[in-house]
Amino acid sequence: MATIQPVKGTRDFYPEDLAFRRWLYEHIRTVSESHGYQEFDGPFIERLELYAAKSSEELVKEQSFVFADRGGDMVALRPELTLSLARMVAQRSKSLPQPIRWWSFGPFWRYERPQKGRSREFFQWNIDLVGVESPQADAEIASIGAAFFRAVGLGPRIIRILVNDRRLAERQLEQAGIPARLWPGVFKLIDRRDKLSAAAWSAYALETGLDAGQLSSLQHILEDTEAWRTSPEMVAFFAAAEALGSSEYLAYDPTVIRGLDYYTGTVFEARDTAGEHRAILGGGRYDNLVADVGGERLPGTGFAMGDVVLGLVLASAAALPTLRTSPSVVLVTNFDTTTQQASLILCQTLRAGGLQAEWYPEPGRIPRQLKYADRLGIPVAAILGPDEVQAGKLTLKHLPSGRQITCTQAEAVLRIQELIGH
RNA sequence: GUGGCUGUGGCUCAAUGGUAGAGCGCCACACUGUGGAUGUGGACGUUGCGGGUUCGAGCCCCGUCAGCCACCCCA
Question: How confident is the model at residue A1, as a pLDDT?
Answer without folding.
Answer: 35
